[in-house]
Amino acid sequence: MTDLNNQPACQDLCDSNPNRMTEINDTPFGHSRRTALKGIAAALAAIGATSMATAAQAASKTYNVCKTTDVPVGSAKMFAVNGQPVAVTQPKKGTFKAFAGWCTHQQSPLSNGVGPIQTSGANMVCPRHGATFSTTSGAATGGPARGGLTKYTVKVTGTQISITA
């Protein structure tokens, strides 16, 4: 059985081990307080509660992730940042994007470890059930995921890529 995008239906796989946890570089990933506060800040800003959004955003921190040469043009690579998976992409030369490295379908990491993320054209492919996400926007482009990836602010200074998370 396949879904509308000719991907294998995952109902049996999804239900077979709902507590499956994948580790990257021997570091278990969980949702941190900082990640939750960043999401709250974005939601508050979206509804116009800017003073509360500013306070929540203040809990964010900047992390040096990698060098620009670590992520080739047209690719995506997973890094562990403060115990969390972060996907960094370079969809076109000199343009870097960063996203939470969790598939929005069942919160599995987008790769089986730190290193390259499988891509297909301009999309990252989740190894667990084949959900796809844009390397440019993080939007879900194919099921079973229905929501996009959380975006991080990227700053490039010389050859250093850093994110605010």
Multimerization state: single chain
The end-to-end span amounts to 38 Å
The CATH topology of the domain at 11-15 and 61-164 corresponds to Rieske Iron-sulfur Protein
Instruction: Give the averaged pLDDT, no decimals.
Output: 79
Q: Strand arrangement, largest sheet? A: 3-13-12-6-5-4-7
- The helix-and-strand class reads alpha+beta
Strand content: 25-35%
What is the architecture of the domain at 11-15 and 61-164 at the second tier of CATH? Answer: 3-layer Sandwich
Order of helices and strands: HEEHHEEEEEEEEEEE
Can you count the helices?
Answer: 3
Provide a descriptive summary of the structure in words.
By secondary structure, the protein is α+β, with helices and mostly antiparallel strands. It has a domain at 11-15 and 61-164: Rieske Iron-sulfur Protein (3-layer Sandwich), CATH 2.102.10. The chain is 17% helix and 34% strand. The chain has 3 helices and 13 strands; from the N terminus they run H-E-E-H-H-E-E-E-E-E-E-E-E-E-E-E. The protein has helices spanning 11-16, 33-46, 50-57, and strands at 23-24, 27-28, 62-67, 76-81, 84-92, 95-100, 115-116, 119-120, 123-125, 132-134, 140-142, 151-157, 160-164. Strands 3-13-12-6-5-4-7 form a 7-stranded antiparallel beta sheet, with no helix packed on it. A 4-stranded antiparallel beta sheet has the order 8-9-10-11, with no helix packed on it. Helix 2 runs antiparallel to helix 3. The protein starts with 10 loop residues before the first helix and ends with a strand.
